[in-house]
Amino acid sequence: MRKRVANESWVIYQTINKGVVTGPNSVCEQTEWEELERSRPGSQSLVQQGISSEGVAERLARGTSGDPVPRGSKMR
C-alpha cells in the first residue's frame, strides 16, 4: 500500500486525439498531470482538479457508471 503524501491532490482528465475527446475519464496525481502537460501539451483535457483522495477522484471520473440500478415499485 502506498504511503499518503500530505499535500497529494488528484485530477480527472480526458485524452484528446486529433481534436476529439477519446476514451473514458482518467485519474492521476496532480504531479503526474503536470508532467503530462509538459511532455504533451494539449493532448489531454483537464476535467477537474484539486480532488483530495484517489477514491473520490475515481468515483467522480466514473460518474454513474457502475451504480446499482434503482428498484422500481412492484406492480400490483
Please summarize what this structure is:
Residues 31-76 are annotated as: Disordered. The protein has 76 residues and is α+β, with helices and mostly antiparallel strands.
Description of the molecule:
With 76 residues, this protein is α+β, with helices and mostly antiparallel strands. The protein has a domain at 10-62. Helix content is 25%, strand content 34%. It has helices at residues 30-39, 54-62; strands at residues 10-17, 20-29, 44-51. Strands 2-1-3 form a three-stranded antiparallel β-sheet. β1 (10-17) and β2 (20-29) form a beta hairpin. The radius of gyration is 16 Å and the shape is elongated. The model has no long low-confidence stretch (mean pLDDT 86). Residues 41-52 have a biased composition (Polar residues). Residues 31-76 are annotated as: Disordered.
